[in-house]
Design a protein that fits this description.
The complex is a heterodimer of chains A (about 280) and B (about 210).
Chain A: H1 2-12, H2 17-20, H3 23-39, H4 47-64, H5 68-78, H6 80-89, E1 102-106, E2 110-113, H7 114-140, H8 143-152, H9 157-186, H10 198-229, H11 234-238, H12 247-273
Antiparallel strand pairs in A: 1-2
Chain B: H1 10-34, H2 39-53, E1 58-61, E2 64-66, H3 71-78, H4 81-99, H5 107-133, H6 137-162, H7 167-199
Antiparallel strand pairs in B: 1-2
Helix pairs in contact in B: 1-4, 1-5, 2-4, 3-4, 3-5, 3-6, 4-5, 5-6, 6-7
The chains are: A mainly alpha (about 280), B mainly alpha (about 210).
Chain lengths: ~280, ~210
Amino acid sequence: MIEELQNIERQAMGNSRVHRLDARTKIILAFAAIIAMVAYPYSKDVIVPGMLLFAFFSVLWAFSGLSVLAYLKRLILILPFGIFIIIFQIFFENSRYDTFTSILDLPLGIHVYAESVEFASILLIKFIVCISFIILLSSTTTMQDMLAGAKRLGMPSEFVLIIGLMIRYLFVFAEMYGKVINVFEVKFFNAFDTNLPYKYRLRTLAYAIGTLFIRSYEQGERTYISMLCRGYSRDSFLRIEKKKIQGKELGFLIFGIIFIVAGVTVPYLIFDLGLIPSVSMQF
Amino acid sequence: MHIPDAFIPLPQAAIYWIIALIFVALALRWARNELSEEKIPLIAVLAAGIFAIQAFNLPVGMGTSGHLVGGALAAIVLGSPFAAVFILTIVLIIQGVVFGDGGITTMGANIINMGVIGGFVGYYSYHGIKSAIKNKFIPAAIAAWLGCFIAAVVCAIEMFIAGTFPLVPGIIAMGTYHAAIGIIEGVITAGAIYLIYSTRPDLIELDKGDA
């Protein structure tokens, strides 16, 4: 995860039109798209708003100048977080359906149901759209910019202060973590090596984590003293310049929000009002 | 244990957000009262430390792995369950917004599971067991196990209420898996606290009176 952090930050330091957008614009659009996608009913129709929002994401990704491969790499890293639950859906009778049609009978009385496959597909579409916008946001916005944007959007100062410092330390930790891993490799220690006694593996990991913890604390103390020497004060650190979103960027933000809201609302109204024969399930 | 976006319907996610925000507000109040200028960098480093600690993959068995939650560890070391809520909220924000681990709409539920339940169960069970058996490290292990296990069971119940996973298989799967991870979390938490206590006892708030 820490190695990934450095890769993400490198991508975020680009200079495309999307990278140059105010962090607030990207945060608002990404969150709006995610909320809109989650708000859409668990219906087969979700494919329509899903495709519309994914098209919007694709345009922004194209303008970011980042490669499709970069997106796919990040997608593959995130997919396991949800794919496990999605795959297991197909073996269960989902409470949102009344009847079930078995399409595959497996040993031990396990069945794969058409309705459950449908529900898993709905979840997959929603999940992919949501994480795509997170990938876009984090790949085109440095963490420091995101933090400044969050502060301007009203995030409490305590969080901003701690996250700001935490971000700085994360990169120090990346180095420390790398050193710990190197030491493990030099000593041929592998936590997954079953030839080593389990107790020994756990004790070694506990000491490594404890050491990391203590080193982090001591690093914090050293940094604090250095900050004091440079005239650190709580109030001066929190000062983030006020900045208005205006002109073309404001126009783009308004357009983006309208597109996202319409991209979800219009398909919902069309299918719900029956202007197109609905294939959605009623829950 | 990180519930991704879309796995909880928006109205339910909003309820979890409201509950989580109450605890986050209380954690903020704790931070405003407790975070002296001197402590601020230390808390930040702790947050980064827990983030780094979560990067360690621990062998669970049968080829699977998991990572520490760290809620009990943060609560025990800093001497307040609100410290766990505060730190885990920060860690979950970074994980959700930067890594896509967990979600935006589901962040409320994730804060409740890992920060509130992990922190409160970890802190109070540590406190209770320690007063009963007069030992610092075994209670830390049990508290960390309880924090991990109960949070996982609550997570399974939330998924059931959301209609995205059946109750019994969910509790069996999440409960069994996290009961195993919880043992490792317990051992590692106790080991880490032992190491901190041996080298820097001044850092453990809860034990200042005992030292």
